[in-house]
Every structure is written in structure tokens, then in C-alpha cells.
Design a protein that fits this description.
The complex is a heterodimer of chains A (487) and B (216). With 487 residues, chain A is α+β, with helices and mostly antiparallel strands. Helix content of chain A is 55%, strand content 17%. Chain A has a four-stranded mixed β-sheet with strand order 7-8-2-11. Chain A has a four-stranded antiparallel β-sheet with strand order 6-5-9-10, with no helix packed on it. Chain B is of the alpha/beta class. Chain B has a domain at 57-126 and 158-210: Rossmann fold, CATH 3.40.50. Classes of the chains: A alpha+beta (487), B alpha/beta (216).
Amino acid sequence: MIARHLTFPFLCLSGLALALSACGPASNRYALIEESLRAGNVQRADQIVEEAHKDYDAKSQVLYRMDRGMTLHLAGRYEESTSVLEKAEQMVEELYTRRISTHTKAFLYNDTELPFEGAPYEQVMLNVLKALNYAVTGNLQDALVEARRVDHRLNVLADQVGDKPDAYKDDGLARYLSGILYEAAGELNDAFIAYRKAYDAYLAAQTWSRTPPPPMLRTDLLRITDALHVTDEHAQYRQAFGDTPWQPPSDPQQFAQVVVVSYNGAAPRKEDQFLDLPISLDALRLVLVSKQLQGGSSANSREARAVESVLYGLNGRVVRVALPRLVPRKTAVAIEQVSLGGADRAYGTHTELVQDISALAAKQFSDQFNSVAVKAVARAAVKYMAAEGVARSTRAAAGRDATAHLIALLVGSLAKALAISTEEADKRIWQTLPDEIHVARLWVPPGSYELFVRPIGKGGGPIGRETVRAVTLRAGETRFFTERVMP
Amino acid sequence: MSNRAVSPMPGVRHSALGTSLVLALTMVVTLAGCGAETKVTRVDSGVVTDLSGRWNDTDSRMVAEAMVKEALGTPWLDNYTRSHRGKQPVVVVGTIVNKSHEHINVQTFVTDLQRELVNSQKVTFVAGRGEREEIRQEREEQAMHAREDTQKAPGKEIGADYILKGYISTILDESEGVKAVFYQVDLEMVDLESNVKAWFGQKKIKKVVERKRTVF
């Protein structure tokens, strides 16, 4: 009889255990990727992502493709990178349709059960990277397809966001890159529209994006409005930009343009932040003792969490809420000095900040935090009630039989331990992105050169490695080069 | 006996029932993702398969057929034939620029256009720029390696009278999961001697793609 009464709680626990078995060990792949990038071994970085494919569960396939698309891009495997990023974009589109069953599961378990579709800025970066893949290989027509796609994506986003002030609803980098691409293709009118939108986007996001309009964008606007003879706009920009130096357009067909895109540092990561809420005096003591004993950096380790889960489960009066925490990792690079040295001539400029990915991630994180927190608290409460229900029903079923009572106690504690241990924040974020993206543009006479890119630290001295490559530039062409700078 | 299965504690039965429901739901949603399968069905290449709403083989074929039919039905062809004592115009396909939001394989469309034009027997087609390079290289190699009586001499290519060029562009509109895609294909036949645009054709396709926001 007792066995019959205890069957259901055991089945329930088996169900929870089954669900728990999906949890894999925490991966340190990002640390390995960053180590490879610091060592300048981009091929190894890509290999790490490829080998870790099985660690990305079915719900994180978009993230895998984002990470892989980036490392393939850095490894110079542009066609494969585009193919992987294209698939990621298709999957994001398919995820527009939300499954109630999946969301219910995530509510009962944790947010990692939701399919990762990326934040809006990460989705925009899919198109930006694809555009760069095409641009680096000289395929401007397909790069422009990505520029049109990103325009559409941002238009839809702006419609969704509405008039909400300070929201992320446009993207300065995506617009600016579109302008560069249109100008390179000779489509000056489209380039002007893109530059103007870029300037407006930088201004609109200035309070949180930590990215003012790049000075070179002002020059671009003055140059292109002059070339298009749109005199009203040109006069407005001249008035707005004051003494910004610029030159009237000379025949672009006589010069070659070099565009250097530098990815600096590492994007922020997310980690768990556990709030253990005691609902009795004993539980409060236990939580305090547990925190004192563990303390320090090991408090969030998997082992520490397992011990806490068992202790809190035995106590039965602790509710755990897991919330994500964003950990920014700012780059030490201020600018890159870019120079082209020929046989008897040299040209130089420096990069300018065009995107602060960490600021975008922080904005997204703060905008989402309230809803994530409310959901996490509600989920923790439901889990606690469910575990409490299991404990009560097993105790009731055990009756006065001492052995059965002991088993019931164990089952109740296990149920609560499981409810606590399954609490986990969704820490997925496109972490192979850089902290900042910088761009430099340089117009030079056609010929053979050596292109030097030297990172300069915030203290003013050189930092990291200088790269040199031989380039031959034809008149009228625009060549794109990318750099990965890790300090 | 059956009453013994009910908890003697008031309220416990409700609590157990609630727990059962919550946990049963957990099991159901855990297992909901199982059962995927791959199914392949062979269909005729003429069957319309609109899967994603993007530009596909059907669009390419239908637009090429319709535009060539239109091009061959307009007066420029008769005018040319009449003024050149029955000679067919020689046409080369120039660049069809993709100005759309999709990575359209323009070559497939160009091939569809060429096939329709050649099969119409009303115009003579010559190889386009890319193909010409390959053919010329082959002739150069023949000049070096082939038997003299089988070598093809340079300078005997037929110059085109007209170049067919154009654009594929799109306009997108999207809101609340409904996306309207408007494709416009513009083609023009330009007289290579005078730059006169002898024919201008346009074909439009509009598709509406609807996606549900939620499903079970």
C-alpha cells in the first residue's frame, strides 16, 4: 500500500531527474576561443567552436551559428561564414512563431529551455557580418543585398518599438556600413540616405550607446551632399558640423579606397546571480552560514550550487531565484593607426569607434531585466509550491510507517533540492563578438602598398600586435580588410 | 479500500492533484519535441512550390517566359527584321543587376531568358561577356595545340545588335507577422549602335507571407 502511495512522487521526481539530465557541464569554450584569438590563432578559435557543436543544445543552434559565423569570418573562410550566418538568420525568422509548449516548459524549468534567437542588435550583426563577408571578397552586389535586408530589419524593429524613447530601434554601424557599400558601388543617392540614417541613429542613441557620431561620418555627409548637389542638406550639415575638415569630391575613379574594420576586445558575457530567499528563521541561518562558508569567487561554481541545493532541499524552506548578470570586458585599445606605405609615398589615418557592442548588450540587458526578474520569481514560487506538494503528498501517503516516513522525507527533500538546482539564468549571448568595432577609411592613388595596422592603447602607447599585409589597389575600387585585436 | 488511497489530511489531496498536474505538464512539454522525421517527395519541376515566400525557381521561370513572350510580341522585332531584309537581330544578355533583398541566383534567371529567346527562333543569340572570355581562351589554346585544319580563327565572332539588361528589385513591407514582398523585374533591349532603348518590359510579382505568432 505504502509503495502504491509513493509511486506517484517517485515518478514525478524521475520526470524532474529526466529533465535535469539535459544539463551539460559548464563549458569554458569561450575562454579557449579568446585565448586562441589573443595568440592570433584564428583557425584554432574556429576549430574550438566547431568541436564544441555538440555542447550547444537544440535550443542554442542559432547561437552556435552566430559563434561559428564569426570565427569563420575571422579565419578568412568568408563563404562558409556567410552560409552559416544565413542559416542562423533563417532560423531566427522561423522562431518568430512561438510555441506555447516551449514557453510553458521554460516557465516550469528555466529560461534556457527557450530557443535562443538573439537580441535585436545580435540579429542586426548577422547582416553586418554577412555584408562584410561579401565586401571583403569584393562581391559588392551581394553585400548590398545585406544592406537592404538590414534596412528592412531595422524598419520592422522601429515599427515594433514605436515611439519609446531611448530604445534600440536603429543601428549606426549597420547604416554606416550600408552607406560605405552604396558609395563603393557608385549608388550615391542610397549612400547619402544611409549616411544620414547612420548619423541620426548615432545621435538618437547617444545617451546610452557610448558611441558619438564618428567624425569621418560628418566628412562623408559633407562630401556626398556636395557630390549630389543637394544644397539645402549640405548647408545644414556645414552649419551643424562647424569646422569639420572636408574636401570636395575629386574623381573617385582615380583613387582606390581602403576600409579597415577592426574588432577590438571581447563582448560581455553573462553569469548566474542567485538569490536564495529563506522563508523561516532556520533557513535564514542556513543561507547565511552557507554563504559565509563558500564566500569568494567559488560561490557560483557548479559544485557549490550542488551542495547548496542539497542543504536547502533538506531544510525545505529556501526559495532560489536565478537571475543573469552582465559582465562587461572593456578593450584596452583606443584606436588603430592605419598606414599604407608605397615605394615612394605613405598615407595614414586612424580608426574611429563605430559600434560599442558592450553598450548595446547593456541596453538590451537593462530593458529586459524587469520582465526576466518577474518571471524568475514567479517560476521559483511555482517550483517551490510543486516541491512542497510532492513533500506533503508523500508524507501523507507514508502514514505512520517509520520506514515509509523516512522515504517520504527523503523524497520531499529531493523534490525541493531539484526545484532549487534547476534554477538557472539564461546566460546565452553572442560572445564571439568584439567589445568595440572601429573603422578607418583611406583614399589613395592606385598602386602596390604595405598596409600596417597598429593598435594603440588608451594610455597612448602601442598595444598588441601590429599587422602588415601587401596590397595592390586598382583605381576606382574599394577594398575591405578586417582585424581582430584582443587586448 | 479505495478511500484509503485518499490522504487523511484535509487539503493534501488537492495539493497532490495540483502537483500532479504541474509535473504531468512538465513531462508532456519535455517530450513534445520528440518525433521529427524527414520525408522526401519527388515532384515535377513545373510544380509550384512556394515554401518560404522567397524568390524561387517558379518565379524565375514564369517571369522569363512572360517577359520573352512580351519582348517577342512587340514591334521592335518586326521593325528590325523588315529593315534588315529578314535578318534576325543578334542579342547578347548583359548584366541583370540584383537590387533586391534576396541573394537571387541571377544566372538561373539569365539562363531561363536565354532558353526562351533561343527557342523562339526569332533572334540569334551570342555568348555574353563571361562566356566569351572562356571561348576566346579556348581558341588561343587551339591556336597553340590543335591541328591546323581544325583550328578556329579569331576575329570571326558575330557582334550583337542588341543587349538585354535589367534589374530585379524588391519592396518589402512587414507588420505583425504578415510580410508583403513585391518583386519587380525590369528588362530593356538596348540598340548597341545607337543606345536607343528598343523595348522595355516589366513584370511584377506580389507575395504575402503570413506567420503565426503562437502555436501549441
